UniProtKB/TrEMBL annotation:
Belongs to the eukaryotic NMN adenylyltransferase family. Its cofactor is Zn(2+); Mg(2+). Residues 159-180 are annotated as: Disordered. It comes from Pelobates cultripes (Western spadefoot toad). It catalyses: nicotinate beta-D-ribonucleotide + ATP + H(+) = deamido-NAD(+) + diphosphate; beta-nicotinamide D-ribonucleotide + ATP + H(+) = diphosphate + NAD(+). GO terms for cellular component: nucleus. This is Nicotinamide-nucleotide adenylyltransferase. One of its GO terms (molecular function) is nicotinamide-nucleotide adenylyltransferase activity. It is found in: Nucleus. InterPro entries: Cyt_trans-like, Euk_NMN_adenylyltrnsfrase, NadD/NMNAT, NMNAT_euk, Rossmann-like_a/b/a_fold. Its main location: nucleus. One of its GO terms (biological process) is NAD+ biosynthetic process. Residues 166-176 have a biased composition (Basic residues).
């Protein structure tokens, strides 16, 4: 008797709460897979999702790398950690771009050697590479032009078909049938082109105020269009410097300042000095690069005199185009 009572009250509850149950089932389905039941996410939810998507960044470090030091490699690690900690960025690549011989800096060794050392130094990292475009130009190239070149290259790569990418990388890839006849951009995993950012030490940012070394419009474009990740360096008070520069202050949100707490005063100048004096630079220069230096007997009194008495190409160029 009591069994039929229970069954009857069960059906009564189900009947009276039928609509509520259906609603709960639909809600659960929507939460787990909204598109599958033909519903689009509520716009504010979509906006929140978008905000959590991280911007892909490629870090570009320009400089002499004469020779490359362990600190140059550390810059990339520090910058990547910093950007990842913001939760807004994902660093997808790092590029070392040695300056060309036409820069005419005193003691600047041939680009072929500097390039070879940088390549050896990066053989144990899977995300930092060396690019020869800048140093293979016959004339010195302004940093902003190097940045434009790499941004354009990324844009072109993003639009390349999977076949072209495979061909360029020297291997064959199966064609994804679902990608046929749709724009290549949709075929690639990336929908948005990664952004180039300048990676530099505080001394480079400070050098932007040296008269005739950098053009104002270049500084403006580097900071406002691309952005900078700047690593602290002993002897450079970068916060004060940004405060004192109107242009940097205006775009300070585009300058990521990274504090290197394990401070390290390594510089290529000091490495060259030690080498000239026959002192060890082991553990300051990556082993493979050091072997190269020893094999080719680089850095001595004579090499330090290269370009002595010549003016740095940026000064020559900017003084000529702006005689004031
Ligand atoms: N110890 C360091 N701390 C922070 N940034 C550094 C350090 N060493 C090099 N950098 C940065 O690395 C980039 C390439 O620098 P560069 O090739 O001029 O090396 P360097 O050590 O400054 O050499 P040099 O003494 O010949 O000027 C620059 O942005 C520079 O500021
Ligand atoms: N106007 C410019 O674009 C400008 C001026 C000075 C130096 N730089 C670059 O900054 C880097 C400085 O390297 P060094 O610190 O080794 O001199 C080089 O890559 C050089 O090309 C650019
Ligand atoms: Zn330097």
């Amino acid at each position: 008797m009591w069994v039929t009572d229970i069954t009857a009250s069960y059906f009564r509850i189900v009947k009276s709460h039928y609509l509520l149950l259906m609603f709960l089932i639909l809600l659960l389905d929507f939460i787990s897979n909204p598109e599958a039941i033909g519903l689009n996410l509520w716009p504010p939810v979509r906006a929140m999702e978008k905000r959590t998507e991280r911007t892909e960044v490629v870090l570009l470090a320009t400089g002499s790398f004469n020779p490359v030091t362990v600190m140059h490699l550390r810059l990339f690690e520090l910058a990547r950690d910093h950007l990842h900690e913001t939760g807004k960025y994902k660093v997808v690549k790092g590029i070392i771009s040695p300056v060309g011989d036409a820069y005419k800096k005193k003691g600047l060794l041939e680009a072929s050697h500097r390039l070879a050392m940088a390549e050896l130094a990066t053989k144990n990292t899977d995300w930092v590479e060396v690019d020869a475009w800048e140093c293979s130009q016959t004339e010195w190239v302004e940093t902003v032009r190097v940045m434009r070149h790499h941004q354009q290259k990324l844009e072109a790569e993003c639009q390349e078909s999977p076949e072209k990418v495979a061909h360029r990388k020297g291997h064959k890839r199966k064609r994804d049938r679902s990608c046929q006849d749709v724009p290549d951009l949709n075929c690639s995993n990336r929908k948005v082109v990664p952004q180039i950012r300048l990676l530099c030490g505080a001394d480079v940012l400070e050098s932007m105020s040296v008269p005739n070394l950098w053009k104002d419009e270049d500084v403006l474009e580097i900071i406002s269009r691309f952005g900078v990740v700047c690593i602290s360096r002993l002897g450079n008070d970068i916060r004060k410097f940004i405060y004192e520069s109107d242009i940097l202050w205006k775009h300070k949100n585009n300058i990521h300042l990274v504090e290197e707490w394990i401070s390290n005063d390594i510089s290529s100048t000091k490495i060259r000095r030690a080498l000239r004096r026959g002192q060890s630079v082991r553990y300051l220069v990556p082993d493979a690069a050091l072997e190269y230096i020893e094999k080719h007997e680089l850095y001595n009194e004579q090499s330090e005199e290269k370009n002595a008495g010549l003016s740095l190409e940026p000064f020559k160029r900017n003084c000529f185009s702006n005689p004031s």
